[in-house]
Amino acid sequence: MTASIRDAARAFSGGALTALLSPATRLLGLGEPTHGVEAFPELRNELFRHLVEHRGYRSIAIESDCLSALAADAYVADGIGTLDGAMSRGFSPDFGASPANRELLCWMRAHNERRPPHDRLRFYGFDGPLEMTGAASPRPALTALHDYLAAHLDPVWSHETLDDLLGPDERWTNPAALMDPAQSVGRTSEACELRLIADDLRALLTSHAPHLTAVTSPDDFWRAELHARTAAGLLRYHDGLANTAPTRVSTLMSLRDAMMADNLDAIVRREARRGPTLAFAHNRHLQRDTSRVQFAGLPLQWWSAGAVIGTHLGDQYAFAATTFGTRGSDVPHPDTLEGLLSTLPHTRAVIDPCHLATALDRKPTPRVPADHTYFSLDPATTDQIDAIIFVKEI
User: Fold this and answer.
1) Which Pfam families does its entry note (predicted)?
2) Does the global pTM surpass 0.70?
3) pLDDT tens digits for range 128-180
4) What secondary structure, in 3-state letters, does 256-282 show?
5) CA dihedral of residues 284, 285, 289, 293 (deg, nearest 10)
6) Nearest CA among 307, 280, 287 for reference residue 92
7) Using CA atoms, how far apart are residues 278 and 384, in angstroms rounded to an integer?
8) Does 298 reside within a domain?
9) What is the span of the domain harbouring residue 283?
């Protein structure tokens, strides 16, 4: 069996991975099985450099706050601010300290210094301003949208009206609302009115797109659309926090990934004339099959951003899942997928799932990892993955 598995694998390289992808790919989702392990963003950086230099990619989008990412993009694209500032303000809190993320911005900035504006690499976040413990206030997104419109049109609502309805930000960011719907302000009369206002402001933005694009710029208008999507998405998410249905947490996961999918769709459309985009996030956010996790004893199930965007893009979306073998004392059982892949001679390997399926004489058993922060691949769904990247030890 081992020899056949070896026939399905190659030592990891950008070329070995892209050889398994459709030439029509416009969005490549690269998943990681856990956060906080530098081996995976380091691998991402290596792959992105290959994609830029050999496959015409001009952008990367990561699982990080879409609004914060504007500061990181301003640094890498135009040299605005400092690297330290981009790291502290350009990422979701958990990702700003990553050495691999810092190396990514350094390389992108150095690459862009030699390029004209239209050919520079762009950096995006495609997550909402959300964390597992709660959601941000909609104030920054909603007021930025309002101010953009008010500078060129005459919206009905004033800045003061929005401030009165929003109230203190602490009402929105209360972490207790995650587990207790009664702590959420998402279904108060003020929140309901804000959802209507956000919808109307977004409609105003769309209906005046020709004028606004002409008097500002396509980039300014794109950022206004980002603020509009984010304001609406956050208000929808806060409404979900106030939901008392048994499916409440699964609904929140669905709402978060729907925001991710909307952002990915907008990024792909913006980058359509420049080149494909690499998206980097947890496997659970990029996979095509149903995402499932256990959270606080609850079984959660939802469709990921990858599954949603895949229905829009068809074969223009590709998904490469990453997994690993040994992590300290956590050694995969020989009958698991990770155990079988651990017999490969490569420290990092790219596996063709189609060839792997024909090489196996039985379905591997699912891995039960010792570390609850790691989610192993489901052997029953590898046919929905375009490529598997295996790291033997982390």
Assistant:
1) Erythro_esteras (PF05139)
2) yes
3) 999 767 899 999 999 999 999 999 999 999 999 999 999 999 999 999 998 89
4) HHHHHHHHHHHHHHHHCCCCCEEEEEE
5) 40
6) 280
7) 18
8) yes
9) 24-127+275-318
